[in-house]
Write a structure and sequence with these properties.
CATH architecture of chain A: Orthogonal Bundle
Helix content of chain B: over 70%
Number of helices of chain A: 14
Mean pLDDT of chain A: 82
Protein name (chain B): Carbohydrate ABC transporter permease
Membrane topology (chain B): Multi-pass membrane protein
Largest sheet of chain B: none
Pfam family, one (chain B): BPD_transp_1
CATH class of the largest domain in chain B: Mainly Alpha
Largest sheet of chain A: 2 strands, antiparallel
Subcellular location (chain B): Cell membrane
Keywords (chain B): Cell membrane, Membrane, Transmembrane, Transmembrane helix, Transport
Mean pLDDT of chain B: 85
Oligomer: heterotrimer
Strand content of chain A: under 5%
Strand content of chain B: under 5%
Number of strands of chain B: 0
Radius of gyration of chain A: 24 Å
Number of domains of chain B: 2
Order of helices and strands of chain B: HHHHHHHHHHHHH
Chains: A mainly alpha (320), B mainly alpha (272), C alpha/beta (432)
Distance between the termini of chain A: 20 Å
CATH topology of the largest domain in chain B: MetI-like fold
Shape of chain A: globular
Order of helices and strands of chain A: HEEHHHHHHHHHHHHH
Shape of chain B: globular
């Protein structure tokens, strides 16, 4: 997990607190530089409330804790249970499936909408103002709204279900249907944000490149394939990373929309972590699931980064 | 781009328009009906009669207080994030201290860590700090897990500041603090917007941290309030829809008044 | 278990924590938190009807005993977790609301609750005030830890009278009749039973009753005591198979897994789209609130049908016998707490207030007074049902150890979906 990055400023790394108070001189390399003091608060804060808990998750995964007493050392019991549990493997598979499905569905849609709405035409501007409306609602609001819409008796599912093969509107109550609903709701919720990223990036592609291509007789599809896509490469990486790490926030959607049901059909790792920790009070085991999540999230992100080229990674991540 | 109208894209864009608007329309249409009408009519029927009863019900059940709590959490999260991230970004770009370099690497890694996975140790930590069931308990982890993105966005924009500007200020006899206040802060304005909006929306929409770290009714934030409405107004879908829509109202106002600013701010997350 | 030292050590540490967070939570400045100041602190669920009654009771007690009292209320969803944090500290509430059974078992195991048995034995006239089946349901390992504080909530079979009249049908008294009714209503295009499959606690009521009818209360009783082999008991397997059979016949309709309790199952019954609905007695208040007209002339209720050849008594019931007040062992006000419970929980004033609020208190010999209830007919039915019941089993999700509740519900959903049969359910629960 070594993510080597170049130090932001070249030159020898000086220990200590920089050069505060040194009289400025004309030579450029003598410019006063901020010392550790500037980063110390953020670093300390992050260490206590983010790095600490991440380490804590790992430590707790070797403990037993029911929330009532002190955590007690439990050896590898949690991990044995984790590796031996069919439910966990199912949930892991489902988590990856859901992450993958959401990525596959969202990326083309947001890419298309982003590029399309980057055009300066008046109608596009008006429409994209509408497209971004779901951005205004929180996950909780969206999940509850959709839950009502997906009600098979009084909501819209009765009418919409038959269109996709659920004649009685039993979408949320069906094993596959429930997963489909989550992909649908997540797409509805997050496409606007990713489209926004693509829109901004597409607007930064110099028009001269397209003009040159037009002169060469390239069609619209060709231009998209050979100009737009390569130019958006970094944004695709950024958006994908955000999507994949963000896929863990689907937890709220699942909790509110299906509560893991029907019959565990939407049990994903974050949801199991929550129920083990705060419904079954098996905090140690919940921490084991959480550790797996941290490892999964980090390695997936690193995988994208590596997959997409090491040098690119730096500029992308730094550009975020 | 091209002058020829793009029919395929136009058609697809209308499909997506329907996808976006249909659920919103249903929510709006249900929220203005009485429960009986909602149950007796079809889901797509135009409201038989309009009512403000749902609005009254939702408002009188403390929704205003929930919004205030959320607003407090949001403001403090944004302020604290900026207060920590601005100097940090400055140090990352300009400092030669090892701490700056090391922190930058940790922040990069931090981007990939799902905040929700740490909820159990965070819960432990917050109870041990005697902050359990306070709004502070929500702000602290929200800020911590928002820091990596904030620092990187700010550092990204600071990197574009030409060295000449720093040198010019130095010639005027400014120390690092003066450079920070007079040069860095003004130049960061665009990315401060981005960080502010992104952090703000995150805090505004936060669910898991408030769910686990607070309990009392007086401290309930908007998202939890909505969740609670589900049991309180469980029988009454129109009232629940009213709550759902009302929760978005402040952001909607912001969107209408300052759409460009909001959109540009969010888009800033993707970098240039 | 853990060593004595670490437990004490932890409690000492956590004490300050919880005290402070409770100050933060309730905004009650001044006093040094519950327990310490001599003020009697009572924790309860937030409830617009119950809270004023409880406050009045506390006031009567403080007027008489000259003690300071305080009622703190929490929302249902938050209460369990909140209580859990507080119970891990020395600053526990003096008197705490609970559901009995598994909801307090871990506190009992950790020695955090007062055994009220000696007190009840010493005051037989106080003990006699409560219905025995309800008092029994609150026992853990043979000891009493809770005093009933409010109404009883047995699970009842509700039905739509108009639909039954229209199709010339009678509410079922046996399982065979139940299955026949399923065909009748299915033919008529009506869902026989509304069930909120999206909320599996509603499905659990079916298992609770069927298992009780087929094998009697001891089948689950053993499981609640920690014997997992009970899931493979023939009665349990048969009960599960009966549910799977009923679901397979379309007894619950086709899309029940998407149905919510309040937004789905209740309106389905009221709107005549479903004929019957198995639900807790609170459903009456719920319907009265939402569908007053239907409730007055269309809502019927009856007991759960008998199962042919079953070992269980058809008069036995399941549900929430009541809610209980328990006393914290670390309370410095234990004497006052007991005084409060003894003075108020069985008192005429308190019981009358409950009845007026629509509750059916778990107090003996109040038939005559139930006429003051907002719905005397229904209240009388509930009261007789509980009084005559040989056993009143606590809802399984409350009775069972926390960690098994979730798998029990998830696997039951699978039974309703037709993915598990009796044997499969037993195997899944054994692995949980």
């Amino acid at each position: 997990m070594t993510l080597t990055t170049k130090a932001p400023s070249a030159g020898p790394v000086r220990r200590g607190g920089g050069v505060r108070g040194v009289r400025p001189a004309a030579a450029p390399d003598r410019t006063p530089r901020p010392g550790s003091l500037y980063i110390l608060p953020a670093a300390l804060f992050f260490a206590v409330f983010a790095v600490g808990p991440v380490i804590g998750v790992g430590v707790l995964s070797f403990m037993e804790w029911n929330g009532l007493g002190d955590p007690r050392f439990a050896g590898t019991a949690n991990w044995e249970r984790f590796l031996g549990s069919g439910a966990i493997w199912d949930a892991t598979g489902r988590t990856l499936l859901l992450t993958g499905a959401c990525w596959v569905v969202q990326t083309p849609i947001s890419l298309a909408i982003g590029v399309w709405s980057a055009g300066r035409q008046r109608n596009r501007a008006v429409l994209s103002a509408v497209y971004f409306l779901p951005l205004l609602l929180s996950s909780a609001a969206i999940a509850l709204g959709w839950k009502a819409i997906l009600d098979p008796n009084f909501g819209a599912a009765k009418a919409l279900g038959p269109l996709i093969g659920y004649s009685d509107g039993d979408l949320l109550g069906d094993t596959q249907g429930a997963l489909l609903c989550i992909v649908m709701v997540v797409t509805w919720q997050f496409v606007p944000f990713h489209a926004l990223l693509y829109q901004a990036a597409a607007r930064n592609i110099p028009a001269s490149i397209y003009d040159a291509a037009l002169i060469d007789g390239a069609g619209r599809a060709t231009a998209f394939r050979y100009i737009t896509l390569p130019q958006l490469r970094n944004t695709i990486i950024t958006s994908s990373t955000l999507m994949i790490v963000g896929s863990l926030t689907y937890f709220e959607t699942i909790l509110l929309l299906t509560d893991g049901g029907p019959g565990g059909a939407t049990h994903v790792l974050p949801f199991l972590m929550y129920t083990e920790g705060f419904r079954s009070y098996e905090m140690g085991f919940a921490a084991t699931i959480a550790t797996a999540l941290v490892v999964l999230g980090t390695s997936l992100s690193l995988l994208i980064v590596r997959f997409s080229g090491f040098a690119k990674m730096r500029s992308t991540l730094e550009g975020i | 781009m091209t002058r020829r109208p793009n029919w395929v894209a136009g058609g697809l864009s209308c499909v997506w328009l329907a996808v976006v608007l249909l659920p919103l329309w249903l929510m709006v249409s249900w929220s203005v009906q009485l429960r009986q009408d909602y149950l007796d009519q079809g889901p797509f029927d135009f409201p038989r009669a309009f009512t403000a009863k749902n609005l009254g019900d939702v408002l009188s059940s403390g929704f205003g207080d929930y919004l205030v709590n959320t607003a407090i959490v949001t403001v403090f999260s944004v302020v604290l994030t900026l207060a920590l991230a601005l100097p940090a970004a400055y140090a990352i770009v300009r400092s030669r201290a090892w701490l700056a370099t090391a922190s930058f690497r940790v922040f990069l890694l931090g981007l990939a860590i799902p905040a929700q996975a740490t909820i159990i140790p965070v819960y432990w930590l917050i109870t041990r700090l005697e902050l359990y069931d306070t709004l502070t308990a929500i702000v602290l982890p929200t800020v911590a897990f928002g820091l990596p993105l904030a620092v990187l966005v700010l550092a990204g924009s600071l990197r574009d500041v030409s060295r000449d500007l720093y040198e010019a200020m130095t010639l005027d006899g400014a120390g690092p603090f003066l450079v920070f206040v007079k040069l860095v802060l003004p130049l960061c304005r665009a990315s401060v917007t981005t960080v502010g909006i992104y952090t703000g929306l995150n805090a505004w929409n936060g669910f898991l941290f408030p769910l686990i770290l607070t309990q009392s009714d007086e401290l309930r934030v908007m998202t939890l309030g909505l969740w609670n409405f589900q049991s309180e107004f469980g029988v009454n879908t129109p009232a629940l829809m009213t709550g759902v829509l009302l929760s978005a109202l402040p952001v909607l106002v912001l969107y209408i008044l300052a759409r460009r600013w909001l959109v540009a701010g969010l888009a800033g997350v993707g970098g240039k | 278990m853990t060593t004595h030292f670490s437990r004490r050590h932890f409690l000492g540490l956590a004490g300050g924590t919880t005290g402070a967070l409770m100050l933060g939570a309730t905004g009650c400045g001044g006093s040094s938190g519950p327990g310490g100041s001599g003020s009697l602190t009572v924790w309860s669920l937030q409830d617009p009807v119950q809270n004023p009654i409880q406050k009045a009771a506390l006031k009567r007690f403080s007027d008489k005993a000259g003690a300071q009292t305080k009622l703190e209320t929490f929302l249902n969803t938050a209460y369990t977790q909140k209580l859990r944090v507080a119970m891990g500290s020395p600053n526990t509430p003096d008197v705490l609301f609970n559901w009995g059974g598994g909801s307090i078992r871990q506190y009992v195991d950790n020695g955090l609750l007062q055994d009220l048995t000696p007190e009840l034995e010493k005051n037989p006239e106080f003990k006699a005030k409560f219905l025995p089946s309800v008092l029994e349901a609150g026992r853990i390992d043979g000891k009493y830890y809770g005093i009933p504080l409010r109404g009883m909530q047995p699970v009842i079979l509700f039905y739509n009278k108009k639909l039954f009249e229209k199709h010339d049908a009678q509410p079922p008294t046996t399982w065979a009749e139940t299955l026949k009714l399923v065909d009748t209503f299915k033919k008529a295009g009506v869902t026989p039973f509304a069930v909120a499959g999206a909320e599996s606690w509603t499905q659990l009521m079916w298992l609770e009753y069927l298992c009780d009818r087929i094998g009697g209360p001891d089948v689950f009783g053993a499981i609640a005591e920690g014997d997992k082999s009970g899931w493979a008991d023939p009665a349990m397997v048969r009960a599960i198979d009966a549910i799977a059979d009923l679901a397979g016949r379309g007894g619950f309709g086709t899309n029940f897994s998407s149905v919510q309790y309040q937004t789905g199952a209740s309106p389905l019954l009221a709107k005549g789209k479903a004929a019957m609905h198995l639900m807790g007695s609170w459903e009456y208040t719920n319907q009265l609130d939402q569908e007053p007209e239907f409730t007055k002339d269309g809502l019927g209720w009856t007991t759960f049908p008998a199962f042919e050849g079953g070992a269980g008594d058809p008069k036995a019931i399941v549900g929430n016998p009541t809610n209980y007040f328990s006393v914290s062992k670390r309370s410095e006000n234990a004497g006052k707490a007991l005084g409060f419970l003894k003075q108020e929980m069985g008192s005429d004033t308190y019981v009358d207030a409950l009845i007026k609020g629509g509750d059916v208190p778990a107090v003996a010999d109040i038939e005559a007074r139930l006429k003051d209830s907002p719905n005397p007919e229904f209240a009388g039915f509930v009261y007789d049902m509980v009084r005559d019941a040989p056993s009143f089993q606590l809802s399984w999700d409350q009775a069972i150890e926390n960690k098994y509740a979730q798998p029990m519900l998830t696997n039951l959903q699978k039974v309703f979906l037709g993915k598990l049969d009796g044997k499969g359910y037993a195997a899944a629960m054994k692995a949980a």
